[in-house]
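pls design
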């Protein structure tokens, strides 16, 4: 099993994005998550300053109640 298969809940990613405004920073944050293959993501924190936003993205690998990879294919 690869390392991503051993993630129990979520991956947090924190970065600073250059953007024109807060809405564009939000779009860029979701785009970044998607480009990294992190499809179930939320923005959990954003701090806007001038033309940049410090953003924390939480990408869920397993939300509560999901089929957990470590339990096998038949687990539910």
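designed seq:
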């Amino acid at each position: 099993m690869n390392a991503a298969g051993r993630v129990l809940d979520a991956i947090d990613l924190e970065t600073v994005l250059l953007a024109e405004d807060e809405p564009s920073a939000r779009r860029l944050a979701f785009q970044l998550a998607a480009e990294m293959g992190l499809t179930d993501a939320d923005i959990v924190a954003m701090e806007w300053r001038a033309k940049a936003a410090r953003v924390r993205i939480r990408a869920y690998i397993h939300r509560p109640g999901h089929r957990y990879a470590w339990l096998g294919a038949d687990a539910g």
